[in-house]
Amino acid sequence: MMKIRQVSSLDWEHIYQLIEDNMFSMQEELGLDWNRESIIKHYMSKSVLVGEYGRHIIGFIAYDVSVNNQMIHSLQISREYQNGLCGFRLLKAVLTKEQANFDENAQVLCRVFDNNVAKEQYFSLGFKEAGRNKGVLNLKINRHQLLERLKLEHNIYK
After folding, report:
1. Full-prediction pTM beyond 0.85?
2. How far is CA 26 from CA 4, 19, 97, 135, in A?
3. Sign of dihedral through CA atoms 35, 16, 131, 98?
């Protein structure tokens, strides 16, 4: 069973390796720059939950919350654990952890490479394309709809 917890300072090397394993070839294919230090710095500035099995990090989700929006910056799962609901569990953890006073117009936003097969999982949850730039899709969904789709309890909107 995957355990979900807050990121610790000891996790960053594992997180970076997971990002590199999952994203380097897609980013290279799109002609986008790759810089280890800027990648780590970017994700260290976000809220991050990690999923671990035993003592091995098998995934993470990096996100932040702004006024009426939740932004998923990255959701990465080790290849051997992909398609096993680990990503959904991390997404659910973020949605239930962050119970700010969102109203009925609140959005969950994310970005995914156009050449990433994971985009189909976002579309299957009801995310819609909100734009694209240099091979990166911007996706969004109404937070209330996503909570319903994932069968999660949600706050009564005021």
Report:
1. yes
2. 27, 11, 30, 10
3. negative
Instruction: Answer whether 109's CB lies under 8 Å from 70's CB.
Output: yes
Tokens read off for 48: 């991050």
Q: Hey, CA dihedral for 143, 145, 147, 153, is it positive or negative?
A: positive
Residues 1-41 have pLDDT tens digits of 899 999 999 999 999 999 999 888 888 888 878 888 888 99
Q: Would you say the C-alpha torsion 49, 53, 24, 134 has a positive or negative sign? A: negative
Nearest Cα residue to 125 out of 78, 75, 79, 51 = 75
Q: Which of 102, 80, 73, 67 is nearest to 22 (CA)?
A: 80
Amino acid identity for residue 79 in this structure: R
As a whole number of angstroms, the distance between CA 58 and CA 80 comes to: 9
Strand spans (E) along the chain: 3-6, 47-53, 56-66, 69-77, 107-113, 128-133, 136-142
Separation of alpha carbons 51 and 102, rounded Å? 26
Sheet arrangement for strand 69-77 = 3-6, 47-53, 56-66, 69-77, 107-113, 136-142, 128-133
